Amino acid sequence: MSEFVLIHLSAQREHVINHVKGWSITEVINWMRQYGTVAEPKNGSLMVYIFESNAGFKDAFHFTENGNLIVVNSGWLS
Known about the structure:
Radius of gyration: 12 Å
Order of helices and strands: HHEEEE
Shape: globular
Strand content: 15-25%
Structural class: alpha+beta
Distance between the termini: 34 Å
């Protein structure tokens, strides 16, 4: 199996979700950190994270109650 390289989370959304299916939240975040930075939420009821890839693309994401990854359409991030 070839390595999946994360460059642009929202553009690769479908493939990323399939790639990390069954992983814990910690595993997903640690994997993402290999390809950029993850800003974790400080507070709030919806835990929204910001991923910025090493290529400079920023995207927001969160997890469902059962740990499924949801990538937010984040064209508003600069």
